[in-house]
Amino acid sequence: MREIFVALLDRDPCPDPAETLTFLVAELHRRTGNPDYDLTRIALQTWAEALRDPVLHHRARQPSVDTLEHIAELAQRWRHNGRLPPEADTKAVAATLLSIMYGLIVMHHVVDDVPAHALRTGVALLGTATRPPAPTTTPAKQTTP
User: Fold this and answer.
1) Cα–Cα distance between 11 and 52 in angstroms, integer?
2) Which H or E run includes 39?
3) What is the pLDDT of residue 2?
4) Which of 3, 52, 73, 135 lies at 20 to 30 Å from 87 by C-alpha?
C-alpha cells in the first residue's frame, strides 16, 4: 500500500481527496485482477496471523506506519492547497484514509467491491454528518441604564 501513496505524492499536480479515493479503488481492482497473484489476500492472512504472532506483528506494523507517514504528507499537501481546512489534523486524515484502504480490501474479499462513486459519496456524507456543530453565539445581554 505504501507504493500506492508514494505514487500519489509523485503526481503533479497533487490529486485531490476525491481523485485519491477513485485512484484507491482503481488500484485495488488492478492489484486483485490476477487470481494467481493477489497481494491483498496475502495481506489479509498476514494481518490475521499478526494477531497471534508478536514477531509477525512487529514486522507487519512498520509498513503500515510508513504508509501513514506518506498519507499524512499527502494530507499536508491538501491542507496547503486549500482542500482541507488550515487547522486540519493531517494524522487523523491519514488514519482515516488508511482505514478506508484496509476496509476496501476486506470488502472486496468478504462482501463486495465498493464502486469509486459510492465511496466518494459515502465519505462526503459521513463528513457532513460527523462535522461538529458550528459554535453558536449568544447575544450579549443588554443592560438598561
Assistant:
1) 38
2) helix 39-50
3) 79
4) 3
Asked if 119 and 21 count as a contact pair (C-beta separation under 8 A), the reply is yes
Q: Which of 18, 115, 10, 118 is nearest to 73 (CA)?
A: 10
Q: Mean pLDDT throughout 84-88?
A: 93
Q: At 50, phi and psi to the nearest 5?
A: -65, -20
Q: Look at residue 60 and give its three-state secondary structure.
A: helix
How sure is the predictor about 138, in pLDDT bands with cuts at 50, 70 and 90? low
pLDDT exceeding 70 applies to what percent of the chain? Answer: 94
